[in-house]
Design a protein that fits this description.
By secondary structure, the chain is mainly α. 49% of the residues lie in helices and 10% in strands. The protein has nine helices and three strands, in the order αααβααββαααα. The chain has helices at 2-7, 25-32, 37-44, 49-56, 60-68, 97-101, 103-106, 112-116, 125-142, and strands spanning 46-47, 76-80, 90-96. The protein has a three-stranded antiparallel beta sheet with strand order 1-3-2.
């Protein structure tokens, strides 16, 4: 989070070491007294796919559909380890909270309430939308 504050110009990095940061205590105190600090932190908090689904109140499969529709792109990828072995490591996408929060308002095709009520085993409305989009782009490419 500190690096994001540096990028936004809220803190200056006084360290010459690329792995660590050093900040003036007065600057840190000033950032800590901001009225919008909680919002700043929440906006840039990275969420994994499961956390994204929880935040939106939808099934994890809905997030996979959102990614296939290219409505969400990871802000970065993180290595996630299972157990103590590196052999169990996998890359997981992380999404910006601010982007996740605007998904249902940025895409008129989404009925957030309908997505939250999709029962287990029932096909997602987003999966149907993805199929239509894929078919439309396939036929458009065939016309060339």
């Amino acid at each position: 989070m500190v690096r994001r504050f540096i990028t936004r110009g809220l803190l200056a990095d006084l360290s010459g070491n690329p792995k660590d940061t050093l900040h003036h205590p007065g600057q840190v105190a000033e950032v800590c007294t901001r009225g919008d600090l909680a919002e700043l932190v929440a906006t840039d908090t990275p969420l994994g796919p499961d956390q994204t689904a929880d935040r939106l109140g939808v099934k994890r499969a809905e997030i996979d559909c959102v990614v296939k529709l290219k409505w969400a792109r990871p802000m970065k990828w993180a290595e996630v380890r299972f157990g103590t072995s590196r052999a169990g490591a996998a890359l997981a996408p992380l999404y910006r909270t601010a982007g996740v929060d605007t998904l249902t308002t940025a895409h008129y095709e989404i009925d957030g309430e309908e997505l939250r009520q999709v029962e287990k085993g029932r096909r997602s409305p987003l999966a149907a939308l993805f199929s239509k989009t894929k078919a439309a782009s396939g036929s458009a490419q065939g016309d060339r």
